[in-house]
Amino acid sequence: MSNSKKRSAEGDQGRKGELAETNELDELEFEDPYYDDIEEEEDAEEMIDGEQEMGAEVEQSTTDAAGPPQVAKQVWRSGVQKLEDIEELEYDPSAYIMYHSMQTEWPCLSFDFLKDDLGDTRHRFPLTMFLVTGSQADRADKNKITLLKISDLNKTHVKAESDDEDSDDDEDDDEGLDDDPTIEHVNVNHAGGVNRIRSMPQNAGIIATMADTGKSHIFDLTANLASMMTKGPRVSATQTKPLYTYSGHQDEGYALDWNPLVPGRLITGDCAGKIRLWHPAAQSNGGTGSVGSWQVDNNAFGGHTASVEDLQWSPSEATVFSSASADRTVRIWDIRDATKSQITFDAHSEDVNVISWNKNVGYLLASGCDDGSFKVWDLRSIRKGCTPLAHFTYHNGPITSIEWAPHDESVIALSSADNQLTVWDLSVEADDTAGGAQGLAPGSDPALAEYPPQLLFIHQGQFNMKELHFHPQIPGALASTAENGINIFKPAITVSS
Fold this sequence. Notes:
Blueprint: E1 29-31, H1 37-42, H2 44-49, E2 57-64, E3 67-75, E4 87-89, E5 96-103, E6 110-114, E7 127-134, E8 144-153, H3 171-174, E9 182-189, E10 194-200, E11 203-211, E12 216-220, H4 222-228, E13 244-246, E14 255-258, E15 266-269, E16 274-280, H5 281-284, E17 294-296, E18 301-302, E19 308-313, E20 320-325, E21 329-334, E22 343-346, E23 352-357, E24 364-369, E25 374-378, E26 390-392, E27 399-404, E28 411-416, E29 421-425, E30 455-459, E31 467-470, E32 478-482, E33 485-491
């Protein structure tokens, strides 16, 4: 959890990033999180009433006739405290190893990181990453899929008080830290708003979408993505048609997942409670040919009595997947028997919005609920009336996204409608020997005693958060999408076993 002071999102406009794009230069822009002194003075009014940013500290100024204003700092708790007229939230770069904010032309409900060939475990800055996003425009014909290449992602620059005295000594180390990231993008027309978008793990250029029209599409953007990964000319894709479209769902849907073990195998779920299994045509006929066309099973997986909210394949068993539903249950299925689920359990007392299967510990499944809680389940001991391994009720809004960290088996992140993204380490236990209140170290802010010890970090400043993902090749790096744009960041936290 970040205990550093933050600046409000409304007041934190900063300098606009320079873009190197393939088309529509005004569509995407980065916001620099740093202010100069003049900008801070001009925007002071906005910052007082602005939207809260990234798990903050409150600064309360009092004027003393004998000297400059005195500042008293304290931890600010979202949903608990209100800002008074003399208080403001400030963004503190020291809470992040990296933080960048990007605005898009239209809101984005869903995105995915695209695997690249730059290395599987990258730490060195500046970083480069690739994403695919889907839009929710005000008209169906304005929607698009966007491939993004974001480069020159530098560390967050934290200036020390002594910088003015010995800035020459560290000039080489600071080179490039204040530079804005660079984005390139390629747009692809999409019929209808994009409810969910996912990239095939085995071929990042194969993109599947669930549209608000009720149709599901697969696009082949392999050539476009390949051109963005090189220094050659970019391949335009604006008029690219879907490789395959399925119209058999009874309603629109938000559930979609590629099989991590079988290239081209896909599951989709709709708001009518049905789940469909997709096979590459060559595989469905008994072959192992290349992915190019699909066959969707006529028999749907039907067991849920309400909307299917999320789907997740098992990371270790190619025929097994899980589903979450508004009927408050989680089900485990085997595609060799579509007539019934192998396991069904009542996971929550309200709608189950999202699930995540731990890729490093194959028997752990996490679920997030409409009531703001999330649970962790041990699938080895699931039975009717069973209790979860862990149950947390920190958030005060529906959980909108949940995901285990790919590089640490005990770390999980989730976003909520309460406009917070939290990172947890479930291996942490309260240290009752630390000497402070409820295990706090001496000198710690007593307000921290109200937070679960497993809660490592709180990120704020985004309105109506919808989805988050850990980068599969950059340990600790995350991105989140919300109504007011996309944030890319790496918390300044240390996780130890």
